[in-house]
Amino acid sequence: MGIQVVRFRDSQGIRWGTVAGDEIHVIPGGYPTLADMLASRGQVTWSGDETVKRTDVTWLSPVTVPSRIVCQGANYSSHRAEAGFEPQRPDFNLIFMKADSSLTGAESEIVRPEGVRLLDYEVEVGLVIKSPLTKRTVVTAENFLEYVAGIVIANDVSARDVQLLEGQWLKGKSFRTFCPTGPYLYLFDEGEAAVVHNLELKLFVNGELRQSAHTSQLLFKPEETLTELSGVMDLAPGDLILTGTPGGVALNLKPDELSVLSNSTVAYAEKEGVLLSSQSKRTQYLSAGDEVVCEVKTLDGRVDLGVQRNRVV
Hints:
The chain is of the alpha+beta class.
């Protein structure tokens, strides 16, 4: 079995620990960043003598700044269809990024920016990089755990009006608090590479199940995505790769609407009219007071990434 690692704040400050039922075993020593902890993994005492109650701590993102957050877009057929794309696997992997200042805790508030009208949610499995990738590397099931330390829940919160009207995915997905992460970072044990293909994702808004999928449905698998990214950019320990979200988000576009929104020659005002006409009556978009709950675990429950519970303000 792997290890459920958490990062939290209590009366003693910001600390790391491992989960044991209703308690957290505090990891001795200070690790300012996730990269620091991963670098010291062989020397870390995972079950320290000190314990604290889960109810006495505030969850923090186990992924820490600095971290590249590299994302896959439209990587489930169900989400491709609702976003106006053809549902089958496309010819290329859609890659974008989020700012690491969007990272926030598993029970922190999601702040809706002033002027954002179409605030959306996206539950995803996040891969945490273990070893540097500084040249093209063929990542396979056999060597996967050489490069991936573990997995976390992430919510790729998105301002659809910014993303689609301005054509700025980075900006529309990078507002502060737009990447709730955790609560648990599951660090893999030897022989657990297949776990990444056996995870069930669920997202609820105010108790209503909105998203439900399985990572076996990913169109571009983690191994091939890491291989592709390694040929493009450097990745370092503690970086986060988001593998894509399934269908069930608030956004729902017809292909002709997507065509207008994707056309750089169409005026902003015309795009705004198309988007708001299409989306203004959809009650699925997030509003102040909504609670978003995310869960990721294997079907047998052996690997459980915890429960993310964020309220929109």
